[in-house]
What we know:
The protein folds into 4 domains: 6-174, Rossmann fold (3-Layer(aba) Sandwich), CATH 3.40.50.300; 180-240, Helicase, Ruva Protein, domain 3, CATH 1.10.8; 245-361, Zinc Finger, Delta Prime, domain 3, CATH 1.20.272; 371-431 and 440-576, no CATH class. The chain is flat. Helix content is 52%, strand content 13%. The strands form 4 sheets. Strands 2-3-4-1-5 form a 5-stranded parallel beta sheet, with helices on one face. It has a 4-stranded antiparallel beta sheet with strand order 9-8-11-10. A 4-stranded mixed beta sheet has the order 12-13-14-15. α6 (133-144) links the parallel β3 (121-126) and β4. α3 (51-63) runs antiparallel to α4 (77-84). It is an alpha/beta fold. It is built from 27 helices and 15 strands.
Amino acid sequence: xSYIVLxxxxxxxxxxxxxxxESVVTTLKNSLAGGKIAxxxxxxxxxxxxxxSSARILAKALNCESRTDSEPCGACSNCLSITEGSSxxxxxxxxxxxxxxxxxxxxxxxxxxxPSSGKYKIYIIDEVHMLxxxxxxxxxxxxxxxxxxxxxxxxTTETKKIPSTILSRCQHHAFRRIGRLSIKEQLKKxxxxxxxxxxxAALDMIARAADGSMRDGLTLLDQAYSFSDNISEVELRDLxxxxxxxxxxxxTGNILSGDISSTLALIKELTDRGSDLRxxxxxxxxxxxxxxIIMIAEKAEDVLELSTEEIGRLxxxxxxxTIEQITLFLTELLRLEGEVRIAHNPRYTLELGLLRTSxxxxxxxxxxxxxxxxxxxxxxxxxxxxxxxxxxxxIARARGQEAPVEVVEPPMQTAAPDTLTVQDNxxxxxxxESTEPEPSAEPFLKEKELIWKKLLENLDAEDxxxxxxxxxxxxxxxxxxxxxxxxxxxxxxxADSIHGKAxxxxxxxxxxxxxxxxxxxxxxxxxxxxxxxxxxxEQVFETPIVKDILQRFGGSLLRVKVLGAEATDEQEDDSR
Length: 576
């Protein structure tokens, strides 16, 4: 007798043989035992989890001559003919090669004939999502009102490609990926029965590589059995091109420490040995995903299919690493896995991706940035008040780009010694109040940005167009007497329009500020503005804190913005 591969030899013959599909098995058993037979079933799920096998088992149960409750006997003529694929009452159709409307029309003609020996005429259509839209449409009427002796069983890996009109006419059973431990137990049962010598570690490797597919696991076992009669972990790694556990451990440590030199040397070694770099990347993604879960979940053992010893070793390897860093590592590795999978040169793609991950270790949090800046230097700075912004510095550094630094300088003014303030990602020097502040003015001045924002929001509810125009203005000053705004460049044409709508703006402003303020509208002169910017640029570069930040972060000056500049062509509403 010719050799039968393990995937065929150990194909499930009864519902009890199905592994990892307990909910589907229970539902089908209850339906068969209670005689609640649907006219159409849809089995969906990943490849190799038992969809087509379940369809054949269901067909045998429906036509079995001596069924007990829900299980077919497997010995009657109908069961044997279905197992051998020779039954005239069970027609298996490949949806990929019989997807035309003509094939469906032929099927519609045959459903009218009664079964020859069994109770039902059963049509199993595998990969049903491959049917054309016209074929689905031709099947609709028959599927909705089939003859009482006909049962359709559809199997698919892509449910979303099936029209909703078909889905609504089927009893849907979703098959899930099989757990690694369940696959390992089934492989152990098969190897013991077949007399195959294999180590427990090698079984675990096959179960992990199967990725939830029992058929893939059996195919890998068959391949390993053909390679050697005594399957060990080392031989299996050579056969499958999988990296050793020590390699993944070492590479994980290099990534966590940012040691890119050792990482590149290790990749070269794996490439010379012919290791599968795509498989290596997948294992790295799984490793860092496991690390993230260990750091987050209180009981990682309930989530991960790992032993207590493995979880303990992973915990030891990540001491001193933050969850933020692990999140960045995992995000980059997930992106890298997709790139390596489709790359023409996986080695170069993998090296570049791991180079990006090396920047994560050198990132500095905003808290450490603040601690590294000497506040005393800020107090001694006798320069114009400046604001320095470092937008997305961590992201820029992670991608190997120069971290840009944006410097914003208000107009020249004299002030008391500066102090350092922080809000979000902006580090700025702001003036402290004068030694004799006005009691009521200071709180009001601190709210000017909020009042301006609220003014635009409230105005938008009354006059959207006017709010859009006003948002183009620069807030120059807001004190207890007036609101001063300015338009520059081409926006100066809006000044007249805003001035004409002062009667709408002022009541809202009074309600928000609690004061009857004048509205001053000015047109900013471009030439004067450029002169002012050039002056500020010179002074900004001489400011000690700016010099310090540019040096620390390798930044560069992007732009300088002058607030409250002197302007001409003023328009003012003096009415109270």
